[in-house]
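Risk register update: the risk that structure generation would not scale has been downgraded. Supporting records follow, first protein first.
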Amino acid sequence: MTQQEDKAPVPRNKDNKCSGPFKISDNPPHYVSAVEYTDIPEMVRVINLDKDIYNGTASFQYPYLESHARTRLENAFIRDNQSGYTSCWAMRSSPDGQMIGWIHAHFLPEDSGTRVHPESGRELKVGAIGYWVSPEHTGKGHASRAARWVVQEYLFKERGSDIVRAEAYTHNVPSRKVLEAAGMECEVEEWTVFIPKLQKKMVICCYAIHWDDATRSVVTDKTRDP
C-alpha cells in the first residue's frame, strides 16, 4: 500500500452550497450533483474507454489511474471546503445515478487584482469551466445543459462572476458547440500554445460570456499561458 493510499481521504463538506442534486432536464432525465469518492471507479473506467477525453484536454493522463482521480477530488474538496461551495459536479441520469460526465468551475487567479470593471472600477471576478462526457453518452446534449447551468445558475447568479471563460481546441467542433450553447462567444479564434503532455503545439480558441456589456472590452490575455 502506498503512502497516498494509506492516508485518510480529504472529506467533502456535505454542507457546501450548490452540492445538489439539481434536475436540469426532464427529457432526457439529467441531474448534476457533487462528485464523490464513490464516483472514482466509474470516472476511471470512462476516461480510459478511449483517448478522446485525453486528447481533448491539456492535463489528463493516459491511462488514467484511481490515484489520479483521488488526487483530483482531494484537491477540489480542499478548495471547496475553504470556499463553502461545491465546484465539481457529476452529470447523472438520476439523482444518485452513475456518473456519465463531469463539469467543474473555477476562478482565474491570473486576473485577480489586475482587471477592473470599466464602469465601477471594482476588481473583476472571472470564472472558467471545463467538462467531459462519457463516449457512451455523447450526442444527447448533456454537456450543453450542464454548461448552461454552471454558467448561469452557479457562476453568474450564485457566485457573482462578471465574465465566464472557456477554451477548446480550434478543431474540436463538438466542444465549441457546447460553449456556444451555453451562450458563449468566441473572442480568440486561433491561439497557438504548447501542450506539455503532448509535447507539441496546438491551436486553441477562447470563448467568453459577460454578465453585462460593460466588460466586453476585457478580452483574453494572450500574453499568459492558457
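Supporting record for the second protein:
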Amino acid sequence: MSGSGAPQPPPTEADSPAVKGDSPANDSSDVRQLLGIKGASESTSKWRIRLQLMKPVTWVPLIWGVTCGAAASGNFHWNDPVDIEKSLACMFLAGPLLTGYTQVINDWYDREIDAINEPYRPIPAGLVTENEVKTQIGVLLAAGLALAAGLDVWAAHEWPVNFTLTVFGVFVAYIYSAPPLKLKQNGWTGSYALGASYISLPWWAGQALFGTLDWKTMVLTLFYSFAGLGIAIINDFKSVEGDRATGMQSLPVMFGIDTAKWICVGMIDIFQLLVAGILFGVGEKGYAAAIVALVAPQMFLQQKYFLKDPVKYDVKYQASAQPFLVIGILVAGLAVGHHGPL
C-alpha cells in the first residue's frame, strides 16, 4: 500500500509518466502532477515537485474531518468571522502541513515499492534529492507543531490539547511508514492507523478547538475510523503486485482478493450502522435515519462495482460511493453538536 486512503480520479488518456505539448491531455496531466496522482506530467519545477510529494488530493478528508469536529462541538458559529478563521487555521494544520508531512515521509520510505507501483512519483523518478526530501519533512513538521501550539493559545486552552493531538498524529504517521515498526506492513494495523488518522484525529482537533472532547464522542469517531479502515483497504487492491514483491502484508495479499473485498465492505457498512444505532439510542433518531439512508446507496454501489471486480472498479466505486460516507460523518458531527455530551 502506498500513499493514502484518498480516492484517485479515474484514469484518462493522459495516464503516462510524461505528456508533452499544449493539448487538453497535457493540461490534465499538469493538474494531476500538482495533485500528486497517477497520470502526472513530469516537471523540473521544484515547487511543483514539492507540491506533488505532499499529494494535495489527500488533504480533503482531513479538512472535512475538522469541519465535522467543529460541528460536533456545538459551539461553532458558521457566521462568526473569528470562528471561521480558527477553523481555516486548523484545516491548514490538518491538510497541507500534517497530511503533507505524512505523504512526504511515506513516499520516502516507500521509494522502493513506488518504483514498482508508481514509478512516476518524484522520488523513484529521481526528480528530488534525499536532502531536499528531508528538508521538506522538517519544515512541514516544524510549521505544524508551531501552528498547533498557536491554536491552543488562540483557544485559551489550559492544557495544550491541539498540540498533543498533533504530536500523536506525527508519531502515528512516522511509525506507519518508517521501520522498524512500519505499521503499513501489516494490513490490519496499517489500515486502521490510516483510517483513524484521516477521520478521528481531525475531528478531535476541530472539536477541541471550539469545545470539549469527551471519551464517548471519541469512541464514536473511532467507529468511523473502522469504516475508514475499509476505505483504506480499497487502495491496496491496485498494489498487490508490488506489495507481494516487497513483503508488504496488505489484506488482499494476506487473505486474497475475494476474501479481502468482503472484509472491506463489511467494515465500511457495519461500523456506519453502529454509529446510526448509537445516535438512535441517545434519541437523535432523525440523524440516525439520515446515516442509514446514506449507507444504502453505498451498499448498492458495492454490488454494482466493487464486489464485481475490486481491482478494475476501485476508483469508480470510491468516486461514486465515498461522498455518501463523508456526508454521513458530517451528519454524525451535527448530531453530537445538537445533542451535547453523549
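The radius of gyration is 20 Å. On this basis the risk owner (M.S.) recommends closing the item.
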